[in-house]
Amino acid sequence: MKFFRIPASVALIAGLVPVQSVQSVLPSAEGIWQISDDIGNPSGWFNIYIRSGVYEGQIVKVFFTPGQAAASLLCTACRGTQKDAPALGLTFIVGMKKDGLAYDNGRILNPLDGLLYRARMDLSEDGNNLIVQIYLTADKFGAPRVWSRVPDSRETRQFMAMPAKD
């Protein structure tokens, strides 16, 4: 008897593979992500993790410009417990729900103005890029930003092990 391999997408359509098993092979946004400035210099690292069934994100590393001090990066415009909190360690992504490669229904805090914006994140199929779009009501606010996954290392594992702040 000759066996042949059925592509996962064909098997899913044919109902041969439960949807849950295909979902489990999809990459996840969990991990350390880097955002860069307009000329490609890294400006920050973020740890995205799951808490209480939703995805959250915390600022874990800031790349300072010459002459910039850590004390200058406070969330002075934030409200509540994050008022005047250092940007480093700040939880700024809250409530994201995963649907395949999309993460939606959450909010992203802008530490510069203290406002929470509705947001959507789309993970690339290879899991190495995260396209982040901010919204004002139903309208997109600015161009989407592309975050890059930081390769696994001792340093990234330390950041992933850090306890999340409330």
Give your account of this protein's structure.
The model is unreliable at 1-17 (pLDDT under 50). This protein has 166 residues and is mainly beta. It is globular and about 45 Å long. The chain has one domain (26-161): Lipocalin (Beta Barrel), CATH 2.40.128.520. It has helices spanning 8-14, 19-25, 154-161; strands at 31-36, 42-51, 54-62, 91-99, 102-110, 115-123, 129-136, 139-140, 145-149.
Choose one word for the global shape.
globular
- The amount of helix comes to 10-25%
The CATH first-level class comes to Mainly Beta
Mean pLDDT over all positions: 83
Instruction: Tell me the total number of β-strands.
Output: 9
Distance between the termini: 59 Å
Which second-level CATH architecture applies? Beta Barrel
> Radius of gyration in whole Å, from Cα?
18 Å
Unreliable sequence segments = 1-17
CATH topology title? Lipocalin
Largest sheet features: 8 strands, antiparallel, barrel
Structural class: mainly beta
Please list the strands of the largest sheet in the order they lie side by side.
1-2-3-4-5-6-7-9
Q: How many DSSP H or I helices?
A: 3
Strand-helix topology:
Blueprint: H1 8-14, H2 19-25, E1 31-36, E2 42-51, E3 54-62, E4 91-99, E5 102-110, E6 115-123, E7 129-136, E8 139-140, E9 145-149, H3 154-161
Antiparallel strand pairs: 1-2, 1-9, 2-3, 3-4, 4-5, 5-6, 6-7, 7-8, 7-9
What can be said about this structure in brief?
This protein has helices at 8-14, 19-25, 154-161, and strands at residues 31-36, 42-51, 54-62, 91-99, 102-110, 115-123, 129-136, 139-140, 145-149. With 166 residues, the chain is mainly β.
